[in-house]
């Protein structure tokens, strides 16, 4: 039985805690939450056996935990990782995306766990969606031939007026740090490292952070493409990703719920997949199945030493890329 | 196979939701106005739909007002609200955090309800009663339903149900069940995507399944059936006279209607189905087929 702690009982903390507590062979043993009201409500609603703390070092020291989920605001990730690596080096760590608030802080986090033997994973759950996994497989198989260029977007309607949480503070928020990491991680996963970046960004509703980012990439493979990310587009009930990839032998169109491959053959062959094309049943479902698969992969890796992906060093590439986009689009 | 009692029209297409294609869902949702939605429900009712189940989104309250003044809707046509409307609150959490969400919910309550919940001014960590706040919030949402509407059941959204299952927060279920029955004289209902675990918990806390509705996915490909289609089907034999409403029977449009009907016909223990439709023709074909076949 894996004993798990959660640091930060916000939206993502509640989600992961709810899943982990129902997975076979794991249970939530402790919660660290600094907001008193949230802690008191959780104490009234959660099982009595769960221990509560307002200090993550105290929780890690007093509780005999196998793993901790870090689901706090982005700017706090690195300090928590460094603290835990120091006081409990054998503790496996799951960090909700992105790894850190900047490339240098991501590097600090990687250095802190670099020589440790526990498992360290970042929550880019799209990698555990069957459609994105199938797309990755097709790209690796060169299913549409040599890639020529791509275009991609990630839109949501989350911000249609100035917000007040940490997501709206300079250095810890903005669409590039909060929403775009999902798409950036997929692009890095699909296409490899980036050679050069250019782009533009702007504010529509927020005063201190960007609501829109446009970035053009040239990858080391020679592939070029661009992405748009905005959390201020009306009509998107949920965040929505779309990636169109053009190859010499066909075109691949990928969204959260569809993968279409049109082959440039005389027969005009087309292959199409939905989430319904795959068995997506999971031991316990909250939100989307990929969260359960992701959490299960992380917890299983502790015994198997299987190093789940993305680990910290792979996830840090997203932070490095965000830094480069920010530098290339200085206003 | 037993004859079904509940033939419900759902609101997914009205809210722009499609679990097959978000782009298609968004396009349909944007194209339907309140009057269109009312006509689609009227058509469904004339073809055998017995009720409308919906999230407590403000646009659905407008639809309910349209239905209240419709002469096509008979008195026995019932409504089955599902709450809270999670998507709305996820957005508030993104914008203001969990504490900001609670402040928003509390500010929507009447002064009397607030006074009942909070002894001192503002939210006090010691005196705040989360279950009481939840019931007051439910009352506040349900009070927006026109008096003409017949509320047969009030269902707890799957996010709360399934979190409650995970943490065995049985006090939430018991309070909700009592509150809906006593105050609203309706059948308490629960939406869940973890049907076997929910049934296990009900048995554990001696919650008679005959007293509640359970709305949960059943379809031939196992879409959203957890931990597996086989397990969910096996648990149907354990619900006795429980009332199970099958949702996602078309797997969001992936399964043809006649195949979906054939699958449901062969299950014993299903009391009703819910299906979303997006046009008058779609409404007519769907509900005529369901009524003729189930």
Task: Give an account of the 3D structure.
The complex is a heterodimer of chains A (331) and B (294). Chain A is an alpha/beta fold. Chain A has 2 domains: 2-125 and 289-308, Rossmann fold; 127-282 and 316-328, Dihydrodipicolinate Reductase, domain 2. Chain A is built from 10 helices and 14 strands. In chain A, strands 8-9-10-7-11-12-13-14 form an 8-stranded mixed sheet, with helices on one face. In chain A, strands 3-2-1-4-5-6 form a 6-stranded parallel sheet, with helices on both faces. In chain A, α4 links the parallel β4 (67-70) and β5 (92-96). In chain A, α4 (77-87) runs parallel beside α5 (103-113) and α5 (103-113) runs antiparallel to α10. Chain A starts with a strand and ends with a helix. By secondary structure, chain B is an alpha/beta fold. Chain B has one domain (6-288): Alpha-Beta Barrel (TIM Barrel). Chain B has helices at 22-31, 34-46, 58-68, 86-107, 111-117, 130-142, 158-167, 170-184, 195-204, 229-236, 257-265, 280-293; strands spanning 6-10, 51-55, 78-83, 150-151, 153-156, 187-191, 213-217, 243-247, 270-276. In chain B, strands 1-2-3-5-6-7-8-9 form an 8-stranded parallel beta barrel, surrounded by 5 helices. In chain B, α11 runs parallel beside α12. The longest helix of chain B has 22 residues, at 86-107. The radius of gyration of chain B is 19 Å and the shape is globular. The model of chain B has no long low-confidence stretch (mean pLDDT 88). Chains A and B meet through α1 and α2 of A and α1, α4 and α7 of B.
Keywords:
heterodimer, A: 331 residues, Rossmann fold, eight-stranded mixed beta sheet, globular, B: 294 residues, 12 helices, 15% strand
Which secondary structure elements does this structure contain, and how are they paired or packed?
The complex is a heterodimer of chains A (331) and B (294).
Chain A: E1 2-7, H1 11-20, E2 26-32, H2 36-45, E3 51-53, H3 56-62, E4 67-70, H4 77-87, E5 92-96, H5 103-113, E6 120-123, H6 130-140, E7 147-155, H7 175-178, H8 180-191, E8 194-202, E9 212-219, E10 224-230, E11 240-247, E12 250-255, E13 258-263, E14 270-274, H9 289-304, H10 312-328
Parallel strand pairs in A: 1-2, 1-4, 2-3, 4-5, 5-6, 7-10
Antiparallel strand pairs in A: 7-11, 8-9, 9-10, 11-12, 12-13, 13-14
Chain B: E1 6-10, H1 22-31, H2 34-46, E2 51-55, H3 58-68, E3 78-83, H4 86-107, H5 111-117, H6 130-142, E4 150-151, E5 153-156, H7 158-167, H8 170-184, E6 187-191, H9 195-204, E7 213-217, H10 229-236, E8 243-247, H11 257-265, E9 270-276, H12 280-293
Parallel strand pairs in B: 1-2, 1-9, 2-3, 3-4, 3-5, 5-6, 6-7, 7-8, 8-9
Helix pairs in contact in B: 2-3, 2-12, 11-12
């Amino acid at each position: 039985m894996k004993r798990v702690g959660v640091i930060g009982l916000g939206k993502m903390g509640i989600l992961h805690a709810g899943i982990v507590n129902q997975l076979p062979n794991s249970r939530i043993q402790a919660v660290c939450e600094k907001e008193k009201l949230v802690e008191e409500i959780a104490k009234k609603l959660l099982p009595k056996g769960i221990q509560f703390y307002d200090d993550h070092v105290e929780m890690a020291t007093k509780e005999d935990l196998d793993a901790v989920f870090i689901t706090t605001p982005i700017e706090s990730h690195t300090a928590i990782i460094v603290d835990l690596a120091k006081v409990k080096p054998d503790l496996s760590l799951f960090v909700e995306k992105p790894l850190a608030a900047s490339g240098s802080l991501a590097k600090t986090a990687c250095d802190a766990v670099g020589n440790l033997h526990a498992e360290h994973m970042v929550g880019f759950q799209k990698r555990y969606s069957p459609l994105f996994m199938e797309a990755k497989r097709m790209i690796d198989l060169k299913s549409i031939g040599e890639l020529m260029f791509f275009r991609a977007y990630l839109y949501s309607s989350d911000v249609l007026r100035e917000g007040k949480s940490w997501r709206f503070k300079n250095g810890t928020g903005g669409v590039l740090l909060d929403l775009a990491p999902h798409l950036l991680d997929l692009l890095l996963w699909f296409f490899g490292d980036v050679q050069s970046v250019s782009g533009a960004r702007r504010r529509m509703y927020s005063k201190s952070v960007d609501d829109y980012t446009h970035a053009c990439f040239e990858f080391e493979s020679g592939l070029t493409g661009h992405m748009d990310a905005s959390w201020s587009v009306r009509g998107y009930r949920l965040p929505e990703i779309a990636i169109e990839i053009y190859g010499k032998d066909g075109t691949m169109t990928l969204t959260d719920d569809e993968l279409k491959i049109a082959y440039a053959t005389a027969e005009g062959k087309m292959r199409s997949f939905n989430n319904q094309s795959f068995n997506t049943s999971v031991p316990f479902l909250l939100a989307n199945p990929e969260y359960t698969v992701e959490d299960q992969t992380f917890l299983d890796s502790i015994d198997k030493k299987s190093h789940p992906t993305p680990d910290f060093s792979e996830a840090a590439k997203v932070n490095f890329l965000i830094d480069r986009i920010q530098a290339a689009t200085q206003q | 196979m037993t004859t079904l009692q509940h033939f419900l029209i759902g609101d997914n297409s009205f809210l722009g939701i499609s679990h097959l294609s978000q782009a298609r869902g968004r396009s349909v949702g944007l194209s339907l106005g309140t009057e269109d939605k009312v006509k689609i429900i009227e058509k469904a009712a004339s073809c055998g739909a017995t009720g409308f189940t919906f999230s407590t989104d403000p646009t659905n309250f407008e639809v309910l007002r349209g239905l209240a003044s419709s002469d096509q809707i008979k008195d026995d046509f019932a409504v089955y609200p599902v709450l809270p409307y999670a998507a709305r609150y996820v957005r508030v959490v993104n914008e203001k955090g969990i504490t900001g969400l609670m402040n928003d919910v509390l500010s929507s309550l009447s002064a009397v309800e607030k006074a009942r919940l909070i002894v001192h001014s503002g939210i006090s960590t010691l005196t705040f009663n989360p279950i009481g706040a939840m019931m007051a919030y439910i009352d506040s949402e349900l009070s927006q339903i026109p008096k003409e509407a017949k509320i047969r059941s009030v269902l707890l959204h799957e996010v709360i149900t399934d979190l409650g299952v995970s943490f065995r927060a049985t006090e939430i279920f018991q309070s909700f069940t009592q509150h809906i029955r006593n105050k609203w004289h309706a059948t308490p209902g629960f939406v869940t995507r973890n049907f076997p675990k929910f049934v296990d918990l009900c048995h554990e806390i001696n919650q008679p399944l005959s007293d509640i509705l359970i709305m949960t996915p059943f379809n031939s490909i196992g879409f959203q059936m957890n931990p597996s289609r086989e397990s969910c089907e096996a648990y149907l034999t354990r619900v006795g006279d429980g009332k199970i409403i099958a949702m996602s029977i078309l797997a969001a449009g992936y399964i043809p209607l006649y195949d979906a009907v054939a699958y449901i016909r062969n299950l014993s223990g299903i009391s009703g189905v819910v299906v979303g439709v997006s046009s008058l023709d779609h409404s007519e074909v769907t509900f005529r087929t369901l009524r003729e076949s189930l």
